[in-house]
Amino acid sequence: MPFTLAEHAAAQTEPLKKGFYTGIVQESLIADLMPFQNTSSLHIAGMRVDSVIEPDFIPINGTIAEKTVRGKNLSYGVYQMAVHSDIPVPLESDSGVIAKPSMIQTKAAIKGSAYKLNNQFVNGDQGSDPNGFDGIEKVVGNLAAAQTVGSTLLDISGAPTDAVIQSVIDRLEEGFHQIQGHKPDFGLLNSTTALRLRSCFRRASLEGVDKDWIKDGDPFGNIRQKLNTAATKPMFYFQGVPFYDLGVKADQATNVMLNTYTEGGATSNGSRIYLIKKGEDDCTMLQFAPPTMKSIGLLENKEVMRSRFTWSVGFAVWGSRSLVKIQGLRVA
User: Fold this and answer.
1) What is the CATH code for 139-281+319-330?
2) 300-330 CB burial, b ≥16 within 10 A, e <16
């Protein structure tokens, strides 16, 4: 069973590796929630079977029919993040500084990779950036139409009627029904959508029923909680499933998930909710090489010390019902 990076961090005894894993988990919700499957090659292949083999009832001595099921061959790869960090030798050698510039740069690279992973997990598109993996938005578009829920606009940006609120709850229920096992492991959305849904839940008086949306605790992020990091706790629970705000990109300003989508009847002001089922047969991250910072040394043509950050990661979806996108919600 693949482990999340949070679990990898907890198990590490080597200080440098533990620091890298912990640093990424501090800022990357995806690193904390998703399991990482280590690969021994740059690509991993498998098969997804979207139908079943149905046996026949036959006489005791009857002829047994031969049936086969067509599978879809799947291949996923890992892609390398990399960046150089150059520190002038006099700055690195200055004994008067509180923290070495190289350590500051390393922490900055770790944080940057964490934000990059969050964004790539949702918005990755090889059509525009062939050097990275496809994110869930691109993948869900290649799944069956039933994995995208919502064909009309539901406006909860102001003071929605009780009928609209019930329609939103129904849409969440429909999304749950379409996921494998009818219950996702977690949901992703932005803060505006989460706050508007919390308002709808209050008005619908869902507390204490079967949707304990104000439940405390976090079933995944124990490391983030212990470290009191910037990564968020669940915005709410719905039928026992935590929903998280992915926050911003590396620029610290642009949300990973926006309120500017046009699908599902929205007119350039819709939002999305993603439901994720994780595991070896569903959604998993791939990792060929763990995050590392290598010392390259003194450059030949400059008086600077160079370090190189690298991380080889990918994303795989093995199940036809491992992802659901809920669309057509106007929240702003």
Assistant:
1) 3.30.1930
2) eeeebbbbebbbbbbbbbbbbbbbbbbbbbb
